[in-house]
Amino acid sequence: MAHKKKTPDPIPMPQNRPQRVERSEPVERCGHIDQPLLLLTMLLLCMGLICLFSASYANAYAYQGGNSTYFIFRQGIFAAAGVVVMLVLSKMDYHKLHYWAIPALLIAMLVMATIKIPGLKNYWVTINKATRWIQIPGLGTFQPSELAKVAVILSFSSLAAIFGKKKMHTLRWGILPFMFIIGIFAVEMLWEKHLSGTLIIAAIGMVIIYFAGANLFWFGLGGIGVAAAGIWYVRTQEYAMTRIKVWLDPFIDPMGAGYQGVQSQLAIGSGGLFGLGLGQSRQKHLYLPEPANDVIFAVWCEELGFVGAVVLVAVFALLIWRGYHIALNASDRFGTLLAAGITTQIAVQTFLNLGVTTGLLPVTGASLPFFSYGGTALLIQLAEMGILLAISRDMPAPREG
Amino acid sequence: MSQIDRKADRHTRRRIMFMMAVFCVLCASAVIVRLAFLQIVNQEFYEQKALSSQTRDITIYPTRGTIYDTNGKPLAISASTEMLIVNPRQITPKEASELSDHEMQMLGLTSKKQTLTDTQKEAVKAYRLDLLQAELPGLLEEVTAEDVLTKAQKNNAYQVLMRGIEKDKADEIRQFISDNSLKGALYFTEDSTRYYPYGSFLAHVLGCVGTDEQGLTGLEKKYDDILTGTAGRAVTLTDARGNALTEDYELYYPAEEGQSLVLTIDEVLQHFLEKNLEIAYNDNDVQGSAIGLVMDVNDGGILAMASYPDFDPNEPFVLTEKVQAQIDAIADDEKRAAARSEAVYAQWSNKPVSFLYYPGSTFKIITTAAALEEGLVNKNSQFYCSGSLKVDGWSKPISCWKRQGHGQQTLAEVLQNSCNPAVMNIGFSLGQKTFTEYVEAFGLRDKTGVELTGEAVGLYNMKSNVDLAVYSFGQNFSLTPLQMVTAVSAVANGGTLLEPHIVKEVLNADGTVAESHQRTEVRQVISAETSELMKDMLESVVKVGTGKNAYIAGYRVAGKTGTTEKIAERNETGKENYVTSFVAFAPADNPQIAVLILLDTPTVGNISGGINTAPVVRRFLEEALPYLDIDPIYSEEEQNAKNVIMPDLTGMSFSEAEAALKKLGLTCMSQGSDAKVTDQVPAANATVSGNTKAVLYLGGTKPDKQITVPDLTKHSLSQAKTTLQNLGLYIRVAGGVSEGTQTVTKQDVAAQTQVPYGTVITVETTDTSQQSH
Question: Which residues of chain A from 335 to 364 reach within 8 Å of chain B, CB to CB?
Fold first, then answer.
């Protein structure tokens, strides 16, 4: 970026349908997928599966009729399928995803609306007082909110690319349509009592329009509004206050509201510098609530210690860095926003999870990508990595000197 | 370079890079700093907290050691039992899966996956409380409904409902638990219970334990540490439900099992002693206790030790009916409680080591032995008794029990007569200092050091010649039965005072001997010569003196009577109460055991050691000496009176039968004229006197008639013999005392009982002419 000359928007507005942009001058494309990202993805997937097995077998044994491999077996199938999906998608021309943007949005909204449709309502499953899963007979459960995330990323990056930078700076084009979409999802998510999901979707969506050039004024205004609402909420809702108190010191209620926090921190803390050894976690033996899900990182920390934990954080950071790197080098605006959106989703979920598990953030449900048990989520994450890889194929080839 | 490479514009690039920094630098750093805080800075805090919840620290209780008698018979054993625990927190169910079928029905639930409302939980809790209250008292008699209710509603997770539950009972309750899905709310843990298989047998020596098997009294208390062993510890990693994660322990210190005790107590001798004490207690209507003690004179080992009334160490807090009634009569609650606890301690008191009494005339043994040893008297010394002796410092003469006096006596006769003035003179010849030295040398002013709790030491305060005078015949200073027996053992064994002991060996859990108690000599008190002289003289006391009632044909018993008034009690209450005692050892020529029997306040007959106590010693020795493989040696005179067992003579010819009887020293006469003996009286295996004349029936059988047994007591022995002979019954005299002034005091078949013709009636006689103190 040596020159400061303002260039015209290189991506012309698609007329009726999105189309591959013909370039004025031929640029050498690398043509192959980004090896570092593939490596990092496979590395995380392996770490995730190993950790899941270690973390889950005690719970599986206790709650799945003595079947210790219950979780790892299912997760393994989805991982294998996911890798295939990732590799297939990586060969695809990601511009075709423009066509899927709006349909995906509508499908996600409709699927999530079934919670209120009398005949279809029964397919929803309630676990721990939250109705977040749909039972597909013969296949298992999946979380429609995962679908919503993908739909938001796809549609936001597609729309933002279509609107173009100038329109994105306006309230009418750059804020309102997106807020409308987020609003619909927010309502639907609240039907599920899925606050953390709502926050994640909102955050991903906001970050994408932020990348696309939305006016920061509205972000500032929105930020103030959210902060005020948050304070009012905590002040008036007793349970929210309790949550904050327990976040600040989980040991005030170690058997109640602070249970997850206490058990997670005990697991992490007792891991020490080098950990108790792979498979040696003690806290996973029914002390940690759902060690294979939201608190899986605690098991990792207990077994592999500070050293292992730093390695995990570093690998995630590298993946995120690589994802944004691909976004920065994508061949068009849609590619940039799509890659950045996918990366942001991984980043938000990762750090929300790490933050909650280590006690930096108040307890809320957030799974750790590639690690936490959940077939659909893993499949979707790997598919997203496939899209990132597809975008990476259009990156300029590394130049000599 | 062309800008077409990167299609993102400057703003977008900046914003993406900003987010990249936020996540990759800011968030990652924040997490890593937080991790460092948790895992490095505060690692120990979290590890400690985690370990304390992840581990189950179990105390491994060792099994309490067994107490055996000298022959290995177990007298106190611990058996593993179970403890029933109720966990009040688990009574309220958390999930439907915890409910029993009946409870599901009650709530109208169909699926175990349904969530329970608080109302439903409360309903189940109330139902379960009712169930426990109604059923548990039926399963465990010792548990009351109120008890169950109180404990099941406590606000904690651990309430002991009952301890010491045996396996069968526990299995019944386990069934009840599984039938009603009460797992978690009711469960068992290991327990251990102390059993005394023979009840009150040796109770005072063994003592008893509390609910945690801690020794409360007796050997159980004295040897509590040794019997208990050392608790071990096992730390196990557990999951959140408390199940062990592995079979390995994180930390394991095995329990050191309690060691066992082998006593010097001989179960058989102890049984003989206890039996005879109980008989004596009843015969003499004893107001206090009947106390007995048997010692191996050559070793110092206590062979038997008892007092009656006793208690059952299985139920150490249960008082005898008589005592309980007295306590129930106390109106004031506080006073009643105090009296109760006092009574409990009193019944646990091991009187042979704790009871203090004036030894009385039995002490003349010590005074005489001391004077002999000092060369102040010898067996030819002469003593004159006028019936009393004036002692300077005392207003009136101190009288002998025989007011008319014993006249001129040899030293042996002084003891036979138990003459007080003569012994006072012997005491004077010793002087206060030497007398006291001997009292000390015989170990009468110190605890003996026996391994028992509650050993007492009496008062001894020699200030004047008046003290010396009364001390010399055992008045006004007190000692314990054990001290007396220990001192007499020294006189009998050649003059060596031994430390009495009751624990022969301490055994490790594997049966190896950890400690073995050897004969411990304290000091040589008198010479062997003095000892020899004393043995002869004391044997004569039993043969011809005041101790005649301890005489046993064929055995050489040496002994001395003692009778003392409980003067302190008379001063207090005005009642004239006595302690009668008899100390003996046998065989007199080669002493093996020493026996002391003591009756605290007998109330029947002419109260004296010779009359109330000597027969008890005789009865005991009559059984104990044959058991100890000491063969009787009969004098010619005794030979006729000794007891023999009738052989079975049927099928023999008359001459064969006559010869067989002759060998036993018996005579016979015949009835009928057949060739073979067809029946006999007395019957085969009956014990008869050596001078019995048997009747052999040659053809036919003995008359089939029943005879009413007459009351023989207060008859002279010869009268009794004639009476029985005329009725067609035989007589046997216990102890085989020769005739003379013997009066029948007891008969083994009660008067007015119908017995077959030819039955042998055993009688006991007492030389009632003796009224010595």
Answer: 335-337, 340, 344, 347, 351, 354-355, 358-360
Are B23 and A329 inside 8 Å of each other by CB?
A: no
Chain B interface includes A2 (CB < 8 A): yes
Same domain (yes/no): B147, B99: yes
pTM to 2 decimal places: 0.65
Residues B79 and B94: beta-carbon distance below 8 Å: no
pLDDT tens digit sequence for B620-654 = 998 899 999 888 887 777 766 677 788 888 888 88
Cβ contacts of B698 within 8 Å, gap of 6 or more: B654, B670, B671, B672, B673, B674, B675, B676, B677, B678
Strand order in the sheet with B760-767: B730-733, B760-767, B742-747
Note the pLDDT tens digit of each residue in A335-382. 999 999 999 999 999 999 999 999 898 888 788 999 998 888 899 999
Last residue of one domain, picked from the residues B197, B228, B259: B228
Domain end position, chosen among B574, B601, B633: B633
Does the distance separating the beta carbons of B54 and A282 come in below 8 Å? Answer: yes
Contact, A299 vs A288, CB < 8 A?
yes
CA–CA dist A312, B257 (Å, integer): 51
Whether the predicted interface score ipTM is above 0.85: yes
Give the DSSP H or E segment for A3: none
Residue type, B506: V
Pair (B447, B587) in one structural domain? yes
Q: Which helix (H) or strand (E) holds B15?
A: helix B10-21
Catalytic residue among B289, B307, B361, B581: B361
Characterize the bridge pairing of strands B260-263 and B67-68: parallel
Strands B593-600 and B578-586 come out as: antiparallel
Residue carrying the six token digits 């969506």: A205
* Per-residue confidence band for B202, with pLDDT thresholds at 50, 70 and 90: very high
Q: Does residue B12 share a domain with residue B102?
A: no
- The domain that contains B680 carries what CATH number? 3.30.10.20
Q: Both B623 and B643 in a single domain?
A: no
Phi and psi, residue B649, nearest 5° = -105, -5
Question: Can you tell me the distance from the alpha carbon of A78 to that of A48, in angstroms, rounded to the nearest whole number?
Answer: 13
Residues in Cβ contact with B724 at an 8 Å cutoff, skipping those fewer than 6 apart: B710, B712, B730, B731, B761
Residue B271 lies in a domain: no
B542 and B572 in a single domain? The answer is: yes
Phi, psi of B728 (to 5 degrees): 85, 25
